[in-house]
Amino acid sequence: MKIVITGGHHTSALPVIKILQTDYSDVEIVWFGHKYSAAGDKNPTLEYREITALGIPFYHIHAGKFYKTYNLVRLAKIPFSLAQCFFLLIKIKPRLILSFGGYVSVPVVIAGYLLRIRSVIHEQTVVAGWANRVAAKFAGKILVSWERSKKYFPAH
């Protein structure tokens, strides 16, 4: 079974990845994330280095932020990233998307929803971030680390 894991909080995903790799030999993990922190940066992110060190295929998503920006280039990346995720998900054919927040996860979860691929979101913090609140509208399940986080998501 293929699982796409995505999100800005890769350190929270690492223990889950370890369990999946150890206890479920039939699971194939693919990562969607950021290879570089900023445009023009030539240094790979810690996310990229740690995920690829585990032997997990890594796909760089060219996601754009919708909030806290008035940069037209960043805004233009939004439809591009949705299309990129849509086509990558068709190519990879995962059975599940596991999201750990961050704006890179939003187009992945929305594209998955459009393709009828179930998504599970994990919120690690007490105050849910913008990305998880948006992605929650398209997810099948939402997991929280803190009881107080539930108020940011639909009751169901």
UniProtKB/TrEMBL annotation:
Native source species: candidate division WWE3 bacterium GW2011_GWC2_44_9
Nucleotide-binding among keywords: no
GO molecular function: hexosyltransferase activity
Domain Glycosyltransferase family 28 N-terminal: start-end pairs: 6-143
Transmembrane regions listed in the UniProt entry: 96-115
Keywords: Glycosyltransferase, Membrane, Transferase, Transmembrane, Transmembrane helix
One GO-annotated biological process of the protein: carbohydrate derivative biosynthetic process
The name this protein goes by in its record: Glycosyltransferase family 28 N-terminal domain-containing protein
Any matching Pfam family: Glyco_transf_28
